Amino acid sequence: MAPWTAALERLRETVSTGRAVPAEFRRTQLQGLERFLNENRQLLQEALAEDLHKSDFESDISELLLCRNEVAFALRNLNTWIKDEPVAKNLLLQLSSTFIRKEPYGLVLIMGPWNYPINLTLVPLVGALAAGNCVVLKPSEISRSVERVLAQLLPRYLDPSCFTVVLGGPQETGRLLEEKFDYIFFTGSPRVGRMVMSAAAKHLTPVTLELGGKNPCYVHDDCDPQTTANRVALFRFFNAGQTCVAPDYVLCSREMRERLLPALQRAITRFFGADPQVSPDLGRIVSDRHFQRLQGLLRCGQVAIGGQSDPRDRYIAPTVLVDVQETEPVMQEEIFGPILPIVTVGGMGEAVEFIRRREKPLALYAFSRDSQVIHKVLDRTSSGSFTSNDGFVFLSQMTLPFGGIGNSGMGRYHGKFSFDTFSHFRSCVLSSHHLEQLNQVRYPPVGPWSRKLITWAVEFPNCTIQ
Question: Which residues participate in catalysis according to the annotation?
Answer without folding.
Answer: 210, 244
